[in-house]
């Protein structure tokens, strides 16, 4: 799953049917403030939320690993 070219996207809800977020999924989403990830998500690719301005993210216990680059260059 990726939403890479949505430059004005501010909120995202990832339903429980999604198992993985691709590497660099929100790389150009510099306005992303809220990401709600529902249980069932297992993988978050590297740089998935890099460069965002997140003020809230809900990560479910079904996520097995979080990479150190997932939130690289986030201002918050």
Task: Summarize the topology.
Blueprint: E1 11-14, E2 20-21, E3 34-37, E4 43-44, E5 56-58
Parallel strand pairs: 1-3, 2-4, 3-5
Descriptive overview:
- The chain has no helices and 5 strands.
- Helix content is 0%, strand content 20%.
- It has strands at residues 11-14, 20-21, 34-37, 43-44, 56-58.
- It is globular and about 25 Å long.
- The chain has 76 residues and is mostly beta strands.
- The strands form 2 sheets. The protein has a 3-stranded parallel sheet, with no helix packed on it.
Key structural traits:
two-stranded parallel sheet, globular, mainly beta, 76 residues
The shape is: globular
Helix tally equals 0
Can you summarize the main beta sheet?
A: 3 strands, parallel
- Name the assembly state: single chain
Topology order in helix (H) and strand (E) letters: EEEEE
Give the uncertain stretches in residue-range form.
none
Portion of residues in beta strands equals 15-25%
Mean pLDDT: 87
How is the largest sheet built, in terms of strand order? 1-3-5
Helix content: under 10%
Q: Structural class of the secondary elements?
A: mainly beta
- Rounded radius of gyration (Å): 11 Å
Task: Give a quick summary of the entry.
With 76 residues, the chain is mostly beta strands. It has strands at 11-14, 20-21, 34-37, 43-44, 56-58. 20% of the residues are buried.
């Amino acid at each position: 799953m990726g939403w890479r070219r949505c430059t004005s996207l501010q909120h995202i809800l990832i339903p429980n049917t999604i198992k993985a977020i691709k590497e660099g999924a929100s790389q150009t989403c510099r306005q992303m403030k809220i990401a709600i990830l529902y249980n069932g998500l297992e993988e978050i690719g590297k740089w998935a939320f890099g460069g965002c301005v997140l003020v809230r993210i809900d990560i479910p216990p079904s996520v097995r690993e979080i990479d150190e680059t997932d939130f690289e260059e986030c201002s918050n």
